[in-house]
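Q: Sequence in, structure out?
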Amino acid sequence: MSKPVDLELKKAFVELQVKMVETSKKIQVIDSQIGVLKRVLQLADVTQREISTLPSGTKTYESVGRMFLLTDLDEIKGNLKNRISLLTNRTSELENNKQYLEKNLKESEDNIREMVQQRKEQNEMKST
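A: Exactly. Output:
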């Protein structure tokens, strides 16, 4: 009778391990995405600081694909402000998603530990 229980435990153990590996990979992807977003955010912030020092009558150009369009300075400032807010929101969404996945990973680790502990206890009971 101990064989079916061992098979069930082994199957559950393998499923939890697969889930942990997938979750770890997702966390790594999110970490790299957050890093990229932070670099882009830093670049946008530096650009915004540099543009804020320009006088109001300065001719400014904004890149659109492979060309540059003459754009009003206030419009460029507004576009940068919008871009920074979008980047900030996306970064916070990814951080929240990462926290959720880390919590999931911790629960999976705890479940695996619990399963191993139960298996040890069962083996000790059988040997006595």
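The mean pLDDT is 88.
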